Structures are given as C-alpha cells and as structure tokens.
Amino acid sequence: MQPLEIPRLIFRKTHKSHVTERDICPHYFQSYESLTTDGFQPRKDLAPWPYEIPIDWASNPYSDRNWQFQLNGWRKVEPMLEKYFQKDDNAYLLEAIAVALDWQSFNASGAENPFAWHDMATGMRAARLALFLDRIFSKRVTVPDGATEALLECASEHIVRLRDETFISKGNHGVFQVFGLSLLASVALGPMANRACQAYCAKMFRKIMKQGYTDEGVHKEHSPSYHLFTTDRILQFNPRRVADAATADLLARAEKLGPWFVRPDHYVSPLGDSSGKGRRLTGAVKLAHLASGRSFAVADLAKSGYAIVRSDPNAEHQPSMLTVTGSWYSNAHKHNDELSFTLFEHGEPVFIDSGKYGYQYDDKRAYIVSAAAHNTVSFRDPAIEVGRPSRKGSFLHLITQEDDGFVVGGEVERGAYSHSRRLLYCPEKHLHIVDTVQGSEGAEYATSLHFSHELEPVLLPDGFEVRLRCGKLIRGTVEGADLQLARGETGPMLGWESVDYLKLVPTSTVRAVFSDRKVAWRIDLN
Q: Rounded to the nearest 10 degrees, what angle do helices 119-137 and 147-162 cross at?
C-alpha cells in the first residue's frame, strides 16, 4: 500500500463545515465537572485518575487493559466535547484539541505505548480528528501556531493505518474504524482521494457486516450485548455513508432482532460477555399457539445459534423467557457455553448465566468463560477445559412443539466428548432437560444449573427445591446422577455470578455428576 499524503493547502482556502455530534458518536459517561475536579474516570468501578498535560499515555495505574484502551481512545476529551456541543464555546473544543496534540507529541517521540494503535481506539480518534480539522478548516476555531500541522500529521498516520485492510477488525471494532476513516477522509482528503477512500470504506463495511452478522441478522460475537451495542452504534453513525442496499437490509434485520434478547424486566439476557439493560420487545409479533390454547412469542434463530421462547411482549404480565445459545464463529467474546440456556420465570431470573465479569486475563475470567460456569455439560472437575467445538457455526436444531411445550435441541462435538441436549419447555409449568454424552470410558461429567445469586436452593435426595422471591416454589429431580451444591467456592472456582464489571458474588450451583451416557432433569416450575 502506498502511503497517502494529505493535501494540506486546499482546505485553507475554503471548507464547508459538515461534521456533527452524531457523526463522531461520542460516549458521555463522565461529566466535565467530574473530569476537571476528580480526574479521568471512564468506568464507575475504577477510581478517578488525576492527570495534567503532558500525559503519560502508556500509563496503566489499575493494571486494566480496558482502561488503557479508553485512555488511548481519547475518552478523556468527550466531557469537553459534550460542553462544546451544549454551549458552542470554543474553549472546550480547544481543551480537547490540546489533549489530542499531547497524544500526538507523546507517540511521535518514540515512547513505548502498547495501546497507541489499538484498532478501535484508532477509529475513535479518527472521528475526533475529523471534528477538529473540520472546525479549523472552516475557520470556526483558531488554534495556536503549529497545531494544524501537528493534527494533519496525526490524521495522515491514522488514514494510512486505516487504509491497511489487515488492520481493520471484522468485529465490532471495525465499525469504529470504518466510520472514523470515512469521516476523516471527508475532511482531510481532496475530492478524488476522498472518493477512493469512501469506496474503500464501503467495501470494508460490507465485509464487516457479512462476517459480523448471520443472514438472519444475528451478530456473531456470541453475546446479546454486542448485538445491541454494534447495531446501535452503526445506526448512531450515518450508515448511508457506507452502506449499499443489501447491507442496509441486513442492518434492518439486526435492528429488528435486538429487543428479542432483552428480558421482560429490561435486562439483556446475560449470555457471553453481556450485561446491562436494553429496549424491551414491543409491537406486532407473530405468536406460536400451543395445544392448550396458550400463545407465546418465538424467535427460532437456530440457524444462527439462538432459540428464544417468551411471553407475549404485548401482554401486561410477561412472566416467562427461555433463551438457548449454541454457536461458535470466532473467539470474540466467546464463552464455552454451547447448548447452555437462561430461564426467566414467574417474572424473575431463575437459571442464570454467570455473566460477563470483564476483560482481565485472570483466574476469575478463566472461570467465567469456562463450561463449568454455564448451564451446560462440563467435566466433573471444573478446572479441566472442555475445549472448543470441532467445527464452527450453529449447533442448534429448529424449534418444534410437543406435549404442549416447545422443544429446543442441539449437539456439539468436542475433542474430549460429544454432547447432545433436548429441552422441553412449557412456560410456567415445567422444563425437562435430557443430556447425552459420549466420551472416554471412565470420564466423569457434570450438568449444571446456576441460580440467581438471590436464590438459595436446597438439595433433596433426588433433586432440589428453591423458593423464588415471588413466593413460588420450584422443584427439580434428576435421574442417573449424583448431586452437588456449590456456592462461592475458590479451590477451584465454582458458584459465582458477575453482577458488575470485575465484580463477582457467590451464587448457588447445583451439579448433577454422572459417568453414564445420559442424565435427565425434570423441573417443576409451579
């Protein structure tokens, strides 16, 4: 790839300002007052970091990779930009430009900075550089001598790096890279170079969408939160800038599917690296009717790796939602959760996923992504890795109806064993789970049920009982297995739920340990 040169003189004659607040898609987490009084704080779980210019951009005071990314993604300037857009006061814009110039000076000095060219951070900075140059070229702000040249040098390097196809992520990070480059090129390049760059951005966006979403419109990063995050961010940008008709149709399907992953209590189904709340499902939805006459909303996304059965989203009372997951497309936000599920019943979470935790590569993260932390089959010893599936794609079968309930099934082949599962779900009545495992002779396995940390199940000779917060009693029995109850164990870790970023609390896990090929749960939900 030939290095690109930015024609610097053309825009000193005339430039029509066009970069808007929407274009740069800012994330206003921290207030300007908090930033200037307490310090930089991109997440609530970390203390503010006092700073002054010049900044050590390679800092890592909390030994936290995400914090380093946030710092180098110029999250620090966003409280300044919020004030700028609110008040139309250039003093705040000049503060933000000073931070950008400090970053450029630090990295131009040759100082080591491992997150300087993080893929997503580069895309975020490109969009902010576009804003700065747009305001300078249109003479809406006057900057100190040498500032424009330094920003142009910084912009040039960003364009060169983002024009390298091998640098563009095919996951959600690539969205920020493509839109950041598209915006920066529209400001910093001449007409011919800009047209070529916009064509490149459109090509890369098509690749990102094709690799990032299934044909049904399901995001492939194995986490409902990332389906919502990526789709919402694309829509917050101006997708018409880079999306052709086919890509726009795929994006529309993804947007329509997003609320299906949000429980009736507004929380996102906590599968993979998911957390937080989302927009609840509403509007016209086709219902599936059982023999008893009851009707439920069904999203049969088995081809993509999800199966969802839930209460009518337009009903005043929405007590039920079963979400089953089963796919592997890449390692992005992937947990060993094939054929796992979560159950929201009687208006509250009952069987949960252990959650996101965070992106620190430590023992807690290792547990959270393990099969032992999910409602699926693992080895009896939770420290033994189950390994990745033998192929990529979805492992689920299409949803069917039987015995006044919905059947969800699937099978996954691993190096150590194969696992097939059949769930028969009759909302508010019962859930039957049959697991069949084929592996090495003498190996011992466990099929686990993880409860919300607010619930405390009691073991019975043949199963368990648990009283929900609403007062309902759930009872489960199991055939062909021995029972164990774990809560907050550390040697090895077992029985933990992530309730916030890098925060775990003890939760109860009932495990049915078996060595035979089949084990069956019968769970009475009422």
A: 140
What's at 461, amino acid-wise?
Answer: P
Query: Residue 421 — φ and ψ, nearest 5°?
Result: -140, 145
Q: What are the DSSP calls for 234-250, one per residue?
A: HHHS-GGGT--HHHHHH
Distance CA 390, CA 136 (A): 54
Task: Give the DSSP letter of residue 171.
Answer: S
For residue range 253-298, what is the model confidence (pLDDT) as tens digits? Answer: 999 999 999 999 999 999 999 999 999 999 889 999 999 999 999 9
User: What is the structure's pLDDT at 9?
Assistant: 37
Q: Please give the distance of CA 320 from its chain centroid, rounded to a whole number.
A: 24
Share of the chain above pLDDT 90, in %: 93
- Pairing between strand 489-490 and 482-487? unpaired
Q: Would you give the distance in Å from CA 351 to the centre of its chain?
A: 21
pLDDT at 308 over 90: yes
- Who's near 168: CB < 8 A, 6+ residues apart? 119, 162, 174, 177, 178, 204, 207, 208
- On whether the CB atoms of residues 3 and 160 are closer than 8 A, the answer is yes
According to DSSP, residue 133 is labeled H
Strand, coil or helix: 129: helix
Q: What is the pLDDT of residues 387-414, one digit of tens each?
A: 999 999 999 999 999 999 999 999 999 9
Tens digit of pLDDT for each residue in 362-384? Answer: 999 999 999 999 999 999 999 99
Q: Cα–Cα distance between 306 and 328 in angstroms, integer?
A: 11
Phi (first) and psi of residue 49, to 5 degrees: -110, 105
3-state secondary structure 354-413: CCCCCCCCCHHHHHHHCHHHCCCEEECCCCCCCCCECCCEECECCCEEECCEEEEEEEEE
* Backbone dihedral region for residue 494 (phi beyond 0: left; psi -120 to 50: alpha; all else: beta): beta
Residue 491 burial class via C-beta count within 10 angstroms: exposed 0-12, middle 13-18, buried 19 and up: exposed
Q: Which of 353, 357, 339 is nearest to 269 (CA)?
A: 353
Confidence of residue 480 (pLDDT cuts 50, 70, 90): confident
Q: Which amino acid is at 309?
A: V
Residue tagged 């009707």 (tokens): 295
Residues in a beta bridge with 521: 433, 478
Identify the band that residue 360 occupies on the pLDDT scale cut at 50, 70 and 90.
confident
Which two structure tokens, joined as six digits, stand for 416? 């150590």
